[in-house]
Specification:
The protein is mainly alpha-helical. Helix content is about 100%, strand content about 0%. The radius of gyration is 35 Å and the shape is rod-shaped. The protein has one helix and no strands.
């Protein structure tokens, strides 16, 4: 009789460990998916950041060139007044 109790307890323990192992596997799969998605999002954020840097460089260049043109026009206008 004690052997049957021990055997039943081992069987229950084995079933419990199998279920725990399955849950761990599911959790690892979910974490792997999460990690892959986060990598893609981070890559997208860096791409957007680089695009914004380029836009800012172009806008800065345009503003600088407009200031030069305005300065030349003012200089010409002053020379005409004299």
């Amino acid at each position: 009789m004690p052997e049957l109790i021990t055997s039943a307890n081992l069987l229950r323990s084995n079933e419990y460990l199998s279920k725990v192992n399955d849950k761990k596997t599911d959790l690892l799969v979910a974490y792997e998916r999460y990690f892959e998605i986060m990598e893609k999002l981070l890559s997208s954020v860096f791409d957007i950041q680089n695009d914004l840097k380029e836009i800012l460089k172009k806008q800065s260049s345009m503003i600088h060139s407009q200031r030069k043109k305005q300065s030349k026009i003012k200089t010409k206008f002053r020379n005409l007044k004299k």
